[in-house]
Amino acid sequence: MRRIGFLINPVAGMGGAVGLKGTDGQVEEARRRGAVPQAERRARIPLDILAGNPDLLFFTASGEMGESLLAKAGITQFQVVHHYRGESAAEDTRMAVRRFLEEGVDLILFCGGDGTAREIFDVAGREVPILGIPAGVKMYSALFAIDPATAAEIIDSPTQYTLRDAEVMDVDEEAYRRGDLQTRLYGVARTPALPNLTQVSKQVFEEGDEERAKKEIARFIGEVILPDTVYILGAGTTTEAIASHIGVKKTLLGVDVVKNGSVIAVDADEKTLVDLLETEDDARIVISPIGAQGFILGRGNQQISPRVVERVGVNHIIIVATPHKLRETPMLYVDSGDPALDRSFGPSVQVISGYRIAQRKRIYQPGQG
């Protein structure tokens, strides 16, 4: 019987939809803005799948850190090895992981973001493989499954997965909220991986050709922008180049809204976008996949939620990326939190990569491999 340490960060991801770009130190502000917990919903998906595997024994923490959800999923083979009171804290994560190691777990499965990954790695290091169910806001580290369901697929395939090195990234959230992306390598964990089912760490490309390519993309988008149409611009330097070309200033790591050459919403959260779309007849979303990871939705742009996409329409999403980024991105991924919406993107999508130039890029669909 395989022994799995299981943990949830109950507040992971709460800052995403409300535009906080992270939840570390911002839980109360996220709640004030109307954020709702995401981690339990995300973690329930793989647990429902793993409930049918009799070869797994889980070790977990009490309450919302794991015990409650294991019981809800109908999993009976688990032991609570760490108890806490009140609201869980980072030290509860570390204490639970210490108990996991004492119990000799074969793998640690957690649901959270980069902050949770760092806390687990602080204790486990490379001693035990770590696999993340993505539920945070950014998730730049390389030990996350591409979506919750594939975390279960990896664990259910012990004879097929391999262990590989996975970068654990440290992101300065205060700088990130100011629009300055500062990352450093925090450590290198081990993670179980199946082909295409575990994300790689984010890459940022800085080349002269990159800047020229962004300007060419921006020039083309500038030509095809429609009057009286709302354009929701996702995060990144490519969308920033588009904004610059049409004469407006964009928040680099936020979501801004433009109409008729003017910014009508800056660093918008999900509620702002939904409210805007209630009064607008026509809208488009312009987004760029995260470098090397290839995520269109679900990493760093949770403000563009399923509710927002449904109002705009998948056919009105414009994806932009430079040729270099596309060469380094084997396929694209969608992890919006709504599996039906993710599937509606189909097997491939057109990506604008230059002036009147586009490439068709494959989108990963569960079961394709």
Description of the structure:
The chain contains 13 helices and 16 strands. By secondary structure, the chain is an alpha/beta fold. It has two domains: 2-193, 3-Layer(aba) Sandwich (Rossmann fold), CATH 3.40.50; 208-362, Rossmann fold (3-Layer(aba) Sandwich). The strands form four sheets. A seven-stranded mixed β-sheet has the order 10-9-8-11-13-15-16, with helices on both faces. Strands 3-2-1-4-5 form a five-stranded parallel β-sheet, with helices on both faces. The longest helix has 17 residues, at 208-224. It starts with a strand and ends in a 7-residue tail after the last strand. The model has no long low-confidence stretch (mean pLDDT 87).
Overall SS class: alpha/beta
The proportion of residues forming helix, as a percent range, comes to 25-40%
Overall tally of structural domains: 2
Cα(first) to Cα(last) distance is 27 Å
CATH architecture of the largest domain: 3-Layer(aba) Sandwich
Radius of gyration: 20 Å
Unreliable sequence segments:
none
Q: How many beta strands in the DSSP annotation? A: 16
Q: What is the CATH superfamily label of the largest domain? A: Probable inorganic polyphosphate/atp-NAD kinase, domain 1
Global geometry: elongated
Indicate the CATH topology of the largest domain. Rossmann fold
Q: How are the strands of the largest sheet arranged?
A: 10-9-8-11-13-15-16
SS strand fraction: 15-25%
Order of helices and strands: EHHEHEHEHEHEHEHEHEEHEEHEHEHEE
Mean pLDDT: 87
| CATH classification class of the largest domain | Alpha Beta
Number of helical runs?
13
Report the sheet with the most strands, covering strand number, pairing sense and barrel closure: 7 strands, mixed
Pfam family, one: NAD_kinase_C
Protein name: ATP-NAD/AcoX kinase
InterPro entries: AcoX-like, ATP-NAD_kinase_N, NAD/diacylglycerol_kinase_sf, NADK, Put_ATP-NAD_kin
GO molecular function: NAD+ kinase activity
